Amino acid sequence: MVEILFLVGLAVAIFVGFNVGGSNTGVAFGPAVGSQTISKLGAAALMSICALVGGWTVGRNVINTMGGEIVPSRFFTLEASIAILFFIGLALFLSNIVGVPASTSMTGVGTIAGLGLATDALNWGVMGRIVSWWLVSPVIAFWVSAIIGRYWYPILLDWFAITQSKGALVQIDRSGWTVRPALGPNTTMREFTGTLLVIVVGCYTAFSAGASNMANAIAPLVGSGAMEMNYGILITGSAIAVGAFTIARRTLDTMGNELTDMPLLAALIVAVVSSTLITILSELGIPASIVIVSTMSIVGLGWGRATRVKEYTRRSTMIEEGPPGITSGALAVDTADTPMIDKARRKSTSEVDNNPYPDIDSLYEPWTTARVITMQNIVPGIATVSAYLLFEFVPLFS
To answer: Looking at the domain assignment, is residue 398 inside a domain?
Structure first.
Protein backbone atom coordinates (compact mmCIF):
# COMPACT_ATOMS: atom_id res chain seq x y z
CA MET A 1 0.00 0.00 0.00
CA VAL A 2 2.84 2.37 0.88
CA GLU A 3 4.55 1.67 -2.43
CA ILE A 4 1.34 2.45 -4.33
CA LEU A 5 0.90 5.73 -2.45
CA PHE A 6 4.51 6.65 -3.18
CA LEU A 7 4.06 5.97 -6.88
CA VAL A 8 0.92 8.10 -6.90
CA GLY A 9 2.78 10.92 -5.17
CA LEU A 10 5.69 10.58 -7.56
CA ALA A 11 3.33 10.71 -10.55
CA VAL A 12 1.68 13.90 -9.25
CA ALA A 13 5.11 15.46 -8.58
CA ILE A 14 6.18 14.67 -12.14
CA PHE A 15 2.93 16.19 -13.41
CA VAL A 16 3.63 19.41 -11.49
CA GLY A 17 7.20 19.55 -12.78
CA PHE A 18 5.98 18.90 -16.32
CA ASN A 19 3.60 21.86 -16.11
CA VAL A 20 6.27 24.07 -14.55
CA GLY A 21 8.49 23.37 -17.55
CA GLY A 22 5.64 24.03 -19.94
CA SER A 23 4.64 27.38 -18.47
CA ASN A 24 7.98 28.84 -17.39
CA THR A 25 9.84 28.17 -20.63
CA GLY A 26 7.60 30.69 -22.38
CA VAL A 27 8.18 33.22 -19.62
CA ALA A 28 11.96 32.78 -19.76
CA PHE A 29 12.60 32.46 -23.49
CA GLY A 30 9.50 33.93 -25.13
CA PRO A 31 11.31 37.21 -25.96
CA ALA A 32 14.31 35.36 -27.37
CA VAL A 33 12.19 33.03 -29.52
CA GLY A 34 9.87 35.84 -30.62
CA SER A 35 12.81 37.94 -31.81
CA GLN A 36 14.21 34.87 -33.61
CA THR A 37 17.31 35.01 -31.45
CA ILE A 38 17.05 31.35 -30.54
CA SER A 39 15.02 28.38 -31.73
CA LYS A 40 12.36 26.60 -29.68
CA LEU A 41 14.64 23.58 -29.44
CA GLY A 42 17.48 25.72 -28.14
CA ALA A 43 15.14 27.43 -25.65
CA ALA A 44 13.97 24.06 -24.31
CA ALA A 45 17.55 22.83 -23.91
CA LEU A 46 18.66 25.95 -22.04
CA MET A 47 15.52 25.89 -19.88
CA SER A 48 16.22 22.28 -18.88
CA ILE A 49 19.81 23.01 -17.88
CA CYS A 50 19.29 26.35 -16.13
CA ALA A 51 16.19 25.27 -14.19
CA LEU A 52 18.03 22.19 -12.93
CA VAL A 53 21.00 24.32 -11.83
CA GLY A 54 18.65 26.74 -10.05
CA GLY A 55 16.89 23.91 -8.22
CA TRP A 56 20.15 22.14 -7.35
CA THR A 57 21.73 25.25 -5.84
CA VAL A 58 19.47 28.01 -4.51
CA GLY A 59 16.29 25.92 -4.71
CA ARG A 60 17.35 23.70 -1.81
CA ASN A 61 16.56 26.51 0.63
CA VAL A 62 12.98 26.74 -0.64
CA ILE A 63 12.57 22.95 -0.47
CA ASN A 64 13.70 22.97 3.16
CA THR A 65 11.24 25.77 4.01
CA MET A 66 8.25 24.11 2.37
CA GLY A 67 9.24 20.61 3.45
CA GLY A 68 9.73 21.13 7.17
CA GLU A 69 9.69 24.74 8.42
CA ILE A 70 6.13 25.90 7.73
CA VAL A 71 4.84 22.66 9.22
CA PRO A 72 7.11 20.08 10.95
CA SER A 73 8.09 17.33 8.55
CA ARG A 74 6.50 14.61 10.73
CA PHE A 75 3.06 15.82 9.60
CA PHE A 76 3.90 15.13 5.93
CA THR A 77 2.47 11.67 5.60
CA LEU A 78 2.29 10.21 2.12
CA GLU A 79 -1.44 10.89 2.06
CA ALA A 80 -0.92 14.52 3.07
CA SER A 81 1.89 14.95 0.54
CA ILE A 82 -0.29 13.61 -2.28
CA ALA A 83 -3.11 15.96 -1.27
CA ILE A 84 -0.77 18.97 -1.27
CA LEU A 85 0.60 18.08 -4.68
CA PHE A 86 -2.94 17.55 -5.94
CA PHE A 87 -3.92 21.10 -4.97
CA ILE A 88 -0.83 22.51 -6.69
CA GLY A 89 -1.70 20.59 -9.85
CA LEU A 90 -5.30 21.79 -9.58
CA ALA A 91 -4.07 25.40 -9.40
CA LEU A 92 -2.15 24.91 -12.64
CA PHE A 93 -5.26 23.43 -14.25
CA LEU A 94 -7.54 26.26 -13.09
CA SER A 95 -5.09 28.90 -14.24
CA ASN A 96 -5.10 27.38 -17.70
CA ILE A 97 -8.91 27.30 -17.77
CA VAL A 98 -9.41 30.96 -16.81
CA GLY A 99 -6.41 32.16 -18.82
CA VAL A 100 -4.72 33.80 -15.81
CA PRO A 101 -1.43 32.29 -14.55
CA ALA A 102 -1.76 31.25 -10.92
CA SER A 103 1.07 31.12 -8.41
CA THR A 104 2.07 27.54 -7.74
CA SER A 105 4.34 28.71 -4.89
CA MET A 106 1.53 30.55 -3.11
CA THR A 107 -0.82 27.63 -3.70
CA GLY A 108 1.72 25.17 -2.31
CA VAL A 109 2.39 27.28 0.79
CA GLY A 110 -1.34 27.85 1.28
CA THR A 111 -2.06 24.14 1.12
CA ILE A 112 0.71 23.38 3.61
CA ALA A 113 -0.68 26.15 5.83
CA GLY A 114 -4.09 24.44 5.63
CA LEU A 115 -2.43 21.25 6.90
CA GLY A 116 -0.79 23.21 9.70
CA LEU A 117 -4.07 24.84 10.76
CA ALA A 118 -5.89 21.53 10.78
CA THR A 119 -3.18 19.86 12.89
CA ASP A 120 -2.42 22.93 15.02
CA ALA A 121 1.20 22.67 13.89
CA LEU A 122 1.59 25.82 11.77
CA ASN A 123 4.78 27.77 12.46
CA TRP A 124 3.34 31.27 12.59
CA GLY A 125 6.77 32.91 12.65
CA VAL A 126 7.88 31.30 9.39
CA MET A 127 4.46 31.86 7.83
CA GLY A 128 4.50 35.52 8.84
CA ARG A 129 7.93 36.00 7.28
CA ILE A 130 6.78 34.41 4.03
CA VAL A 131 3.57 36.46 3.83
CA SER A 132 5.49 39.65 4.63
CA TRP A 133 7.75 39.07 1.65
CA TRP A 134 4.73 38.23 -0.49
CA LEU A 135 3.40 41.70 0.29
CA VAL A 136 6.71 43.53 -0.06
CA SER A 137 8.21 41.90 -3.17
CA PRO A 138 5.45 42.96 -5.63
CA VAL A 139 5.69 46.53 -4.31
CA ILE A 140 9.45 46.50 -4.86
CA ALA A 141 8.98 45.10 -8.37
CA PHE A 142 6.38 47.77 -9.15
CA TRP A 143 8.43 50.76 -8.02
CA VAL A 144 11.76 49.59 -9.44
CA SER A 145 10.10 49.02 -12.83
CA ALA A 146 8.13 52.27 -12.56
CA ILE A 147 11.31 54.27 -11.96
CA ILE A 148 12.97 52.57 -14.92
CA GLY A 149 9.92 53.25 -17.10
CA ARG A 150 9.64 56.88 -15.98
CA TYR A 151 13.28 57.95 -16.12
CA TRP A 152 15.50 55.33 -17.78
CA TYR A 153 13.48 53.60 -20.49
CA PRO A 154 14.28 56.12 -23.29
CA ILE A 155 18.00 55.91 -22.49
CA LEU A 156 17.91 52.12 -22.47
CA LEU A 157 15.95 52.20 -25.71
CA ASP A 158 18.80 54.10 -27.35
CA TRP A 159 21.45 51.83 -25.89
CA PHE A 160 19.59 48.66 -26.79
CA ALA A 161 18.57 49.61 -30.33
CA ILE A 162 19.52 46.56 -32.41
CA THR A 163 19.10 46.06 -36.13
CA GLN A 164 19.02 42.38 -36.99
CA SER A 165 21.10 41.71 -40.07
CA LYS A 166 20.55 39.05 -42.68
CA GLY A 167 22.56 35.89 -42.60
CA ALA A 168 24.18 33.95 -39.78
CA LEU A 169 24.97 35.72 -36.53
CA VAL A 170 28.19 33.72 -36.07
CA GLN A 171 30.25 31.76 -38.57
CA ILE A 172 33.35 29.58 -38.48
CA ASP A 173 36.51 31.28 -39.72
CA ARG A 174 38.84 28.81 -41.42
CA SER A 175 41.09 31.36 -43.09
CA GLY A 176 43.97 31.07 -40.61
CA TRP A 177 45.96 28.27 -39.11
CA THR A 178 43.22 27.55 -36.57
CA VAL A 179 39.48 27.23 -36.85
CA ARG A 180 37.73 29.87 -34.73
CA PRO A 181 34.28 31.42 -34.42
CA ALA A 182 33.77 34.86 -35.95
CA LEU A 183 30.95 37.32 -36.50
CA GLY A 184 28.70 36.73 -39.49
CA PRO A 185 29.23 38.66 -42.72
CA ASN A 186 26.68 41.36 -41.77
CA THR A 187 26.83 41.08 -37.99
CA THR A 188 27.98 44.05 -35.93
CA MET A 189 29.42 43.79 -32.43
CA ARG A 190 26.38 45.71 -31.15
CA GLU A 191 24.03 43.15 -32.66
CA PHE A 192 26.06 40.24 -31.30
CA THR A 193 26.21 41.72 -27.79
CA GLY A 194 22.48 42.49 -27.75
CA THR A 195 21.59 39.01 -28.99
CA LEU A 196 23.82 37.41 -26.38
CA LEU A 197 22.19 39.56 -23.68
CA VAL A 198 18.72 38.33 -24.69
CA ILE A 199 19.84 34.72 -24.27
CA VAL A 200 21.63 35.40 -20.96
CA VAL A 201 18.52 37.07 -19.51
CA GLY A 202 16.45 34.06 -20.60
CA CYS A 203 18.87 31.71 -18.84
CA TYR A 204 18.75 33.89 -15.73
CA THR A 205 14.96 33.74 -15.67
CA ALA A 206 15.04 29.96 -16.15
CA PHE A 207 17.50 29.68 -13.26
CA SER A 208 15.22 31.69 -10.95
CA ALA A 209 12.19 29.66 -12.05
CA GLY A 210 13.97 26.43 -11.15
CA ALA A 211 15.14 27.83 -7.82
CA SER A 212 11.63 28.91 -6.83
CA ASN A 213 9.39 26.27 -8.41
CA MET A 214 11.37 23.06 -7.88
CA ALA A 215 10.05 22.93 -4.31
CA ASN A 216 6.43 22.96 -5.48
CA ALA A 217 6.87 19.52 -7.01
CA ILE A 218 8.92 17.66 -4.40
CA ALA A 219 8.93 19.52 -1.06
CA PRO A 220 6.05 17.45 0.42
CA LEU A 221 7.67 14.16 -0.58
CA VAL A 222 11.08 15.29 0.68
CA GLY A 223 9.50 16.53 3.91
CA SER A 224 7.77 13.20 4.45
CA GLY A 225 11.06 11.34 4.05
CA ALA A 226 9.68 9.37 1.11
CA MET A 227 12.24 10.87 -1.26
CA GLU A 228 15.82 12.06 -0.86
CA MET A 229 16.31 15.69 -1.95
CA ASN A 230 18.95 15.08 -4.62
CA TYR A 231 16.88 12.40 -6.33
CA GLY A 232 13.82 14.62 -6.12
CA ILE A 233 15.62 17.51 -7.79
CA LEU A 234 16.87 15.27 -10.60
CA ILE A 235 13.42 13.74 -11.16
CA THR A 236 11.69 17.12 -11.15
CA GLY A 237 14.38 18.60 -13.39
CA SER A 238 13.73 15.80 -15.87
CA ALA A 239 9.98 16.48 -15.74
CA ILE A 240 10.60 20.20 -16.34
CA ALA A 241 12.75 19.27 -19.33
CA VAL A 242 10.00 17.10 -20.80
CA GLY A 243 7.54 19.97 -20.39
CA ALA A 244 10.01 22.40 -21.99
CA PHE A 245 10.44 20.19 -25.05
CA THR A 246 6.71 19.44 -25.49
CA ILE A 247 3.88 21.67 -24.23
CA ALA A 248 6.17 24.70 -23.91
CA ARG A 249 6.16 25.06 -27.68
CA ARG A 250 2.64 26.53 -27.48
CA THR A 251 3.56 28.98 -24.72
CA LEU A 252 6.60 30.02 -26.70
CA ASP A 253 4.34 30.73 -29.69
CA THR A 254 2.07 32.82 -27.48
CA MET A 255 4.88 34.80 -25.90
CA GLY A 256 6.59 35.29 -29.24
CA ASN A 257 3.43 36.57 -30.94
CA GLU A 258 2.79 38.98 -28.08
CA LEU A 259 6.11 40.69 -28.55
CA THR A 260 4.43 43.28 -30.77
CA ASP A 261 2.55 44.35 -27.62
CA MET A 262 5.48 44.03 -25.21
CA PRO A 263 8.67 45.15 -26.97
CA LEU A 264 11.83 43.17 -26.47
CA LEU A 265 13.40 45.78 -24.20
CA ALA A 266 10.32 45.92 -21.94
CA ALA A 267 10.26 42.11 -21.69
CA LEU A 268 13.95 42.04 -20.73
CA ILE A 269 13.51 44.70 -18.05
CA VAL A 270 10.61 42.75 -16.53
CA ALA A 271 12.64 39.53 -16.66
CA VAL A 272 15.69 41.03 -14.96
CA VAL A 273 13.71 42.77 -12.20
CA SER A 274 11.45 39.80 -11.40
CA SER A 275 14.18 37.15 -11.70
CA THR A 276 16.51 39.09 -9.40
CA LEU A 277 13.84 39.41 -6.73
CA ILE A 278 12.87 35.73 -6.97
CA THR A 279 16.50 34.59 -6.81
CA ILE A 280 17.14 36.71 -3.70
CA LEU A 281 13.99 35.38 -2.03
CA SER A 282 14.90 31.80 -2.95
CA GLU A 283 18.31 32.29 -1.33
CA LEU A 284 16.46 33.42 1.79
CA GLY A 285 14.30 30.28 1.61
CA ILE A 286 11.12 32.21 0.76
CA PRO A 287 8.73 30.48 -1.71
CA ALA A 288 7.66 33.41 -3.89
CA SER A 289 5.56 33.85 -6.98
CA ILE A 290 7.44 34.84 -10.11
CA VAL A 291 4.02 35.22 -11.78
CA ILE A 292 2.82 37.94 -9.38
CA VAL A 293 6.21 39.66 -9.21
CA SER A 294 6.42 39.71 -13.01
CA THR A 295 2.85 41.00 -13.27
CA MET A 296 3.59 43.91 -10.92
CA SER A 297 6.83 44.60 -12.78
CA ILE A 298 4.87 44.86 -16.05
CA VAL A 299 2.30 47.13 -14.40
CA GLY A 300 5.02 49.30 -12.87
CA LEU A 301 6.91 49.64 -16.13
CA GLY A 302 3.73 50.52 -18.01
CA TRP A 303 2.60 52.99 -15.34
CA GLY A 304 5.99 54.68 -15.23
CA ARG A 305 6.09 55.08 -19.01
CA ALA A 306 2.48 56.26 -19.04
CA THR A 307 3.25 59.02 -16.54
CA ARG A 308 6.15 60.12 -18.72
CA VAL A 309 3.93 60.25 -21.80
CA LYS A 310 1.23 62.11 -19.86
CA GLU A 311 3.78 64.69 -18.71
CA TYR A 312 5.07 65.05 -22.26
CA THR A 313 1.54 65.57 -23.58
CA ARG A 314 0.79 68.18 -20.88
CA ARG A 315 3.92 70.13 -21.65
CA SER A 316 3.28 69.94 -25.38
CA THR A 317 -0.20 71.41 -24.79
CA MET A 318 1.32 74.25 -22.82
CA ILE A 319 3.62 75.04 -25.75
CA GLU A 320 0.75 75.05 -28.24
CA GLU A 321 -1.22 77.44 -26.03
CA GLY A 322 1.81 79.70 -25.84
CA PRO A 323 2.44 80.22 -22.13
CA PRO A 324 5.08 82.87 -21.52
CA GLY A 325 8.63 81.88 -20.79
CA ILE A 326 8.45 78.35 -22.22
CA THR A 327 10.26 77.28 -25.35
CA SER A 328 10.39 73.97 -27.14
CA GLY A 329 14.07 73.63 -26.28
CA ALA A 330 13.19 73.46 -22.61
CA LEU A 331 11.08 70.35 -23.20
CA ALA A 332 13.63 67.94 -24.61
CA VAL A 333 11.68 64.75 -24.00
CA ASP A 334 12.50 61.52 -25.79
CA THR A 335 9.36 60.76 -27.81
CA ALA A 336 10.54 57.26 -28.63
CA ASP A 337 9.35 56.10 -25.22
CA THR A 338 6.05 54.73 -26.45
CA PRO A 339 6.01 50.96 -27.11
CA MET A 340 2.79 49.18 -26.16
CA ILE A 341 2.70 46.61 -23.39
CA ASP A 342 -0.56 44.71 -23.37
CA LYS A 343 -3.01 46.28 -25.79
CA ALA A 344 -4.41 44.23 -28.67
CA ARG A 345 -2.08 44.11 -31.64
CA ARG A 346 -2.70 47.07 -33.88
CA LYS A 347 0.71 48.29 -34.99
CA SER A 348 4.19 46.96 -35.39
CA THR A 349 6.66 47.71 -32.60
CA SER A 350 8.61 50.15 -34.76
CA GLU A 351 5.46 52.12 -35.62
CA VAL A 352 4.46 52.38 -31.98
CA ASP A 353 7.98 53.27 -30.83
CA ASN A 354 7.97 56.31 -33.09
CA ASN A 355 4.49 57.52 -32.15
CA PRO A 356 4.87 60.75 -30.10
CA TYR A 357 1.28 60.59 -28.77
CA PRO A 358 0.52 56.98 -27.76
CA ASP A 359 -2.65 55.78 -26.12
CA ILE A 360 -1.80 55.87 -22.41
CA ASP A 361 -4.32 53.10 -21.74
CA SER A 362 -2.17 50.81 -23.87
CA LEU A 363 0.66 51.25 -21.39
CA TYR A 364 -1.36 50.72 -18.24
CA GLU A 365 -4.81 49.12 -17.90
CA PRO A 366 -6.05 49.29 -14.28
CA TRP A 367 -9.11 47.05 -14.69
CA THR A 368 -7.19 44.29 -16.45
CA THR A 369 -4.48 44.53 -13.82
CA ALA A 370 -7.02 44.26 -11.00
CA ARG A 371 -8.66 41.20 -12.58
CA VAL A 372 -5.33 39.40 -13.02
CA ILE A 373 -4.07 40.15 -9.51
CA THR A 374 -7.42 39.19 -7.96
CA MET A 375 -7.47 35.81 -9.71
CA GLN A 376 -3.83 35.18 -8.78
CA ASN A 377 -4.74 35.56 -5.11
CA ILE A 378 -8.11 33.81 -5.18
CA VAL A 379 -6.70 30.47 -6.35
CA PRO A 380 -4.20 30.12 -3.43
CA GLY A 381 -6.97 31.20 -1.04
CA ILE A 382 -9.28 28.49 -2.33
CA ALA A 383 -6.47 25.94 -2.01
CA THR A 384 -5.80 26.96 1.59
CA VAL A 385 -9.43 26.68 2.68
CA SER A 386 -9.93 23.42 0.77
CA ALA A 387 -6.82 21.89 2.29
CA TYR A 388 -7.89 22.87 5.80
CA LEU A 389 -11.32 21.27 5.32
CA LEU A 390 -9.74 18.16 3.84
CA PHE A 391 -7.18 17.65 6.60
CA GLU A 392 -9.65 18.57 9.34
CA PHE A 393 -12.70 16.53 8.38
CA VAL A 394 -11.71 13.70 6.01
CA PRO A 395 -10.61 10.70 8.12
CA LEU A 396 -8.08 9.43 5.59
CA PHE A 397 -6.09 12.67 5.81
CA SER A 398 -6.90 13.95 9.32
So the answer is: no
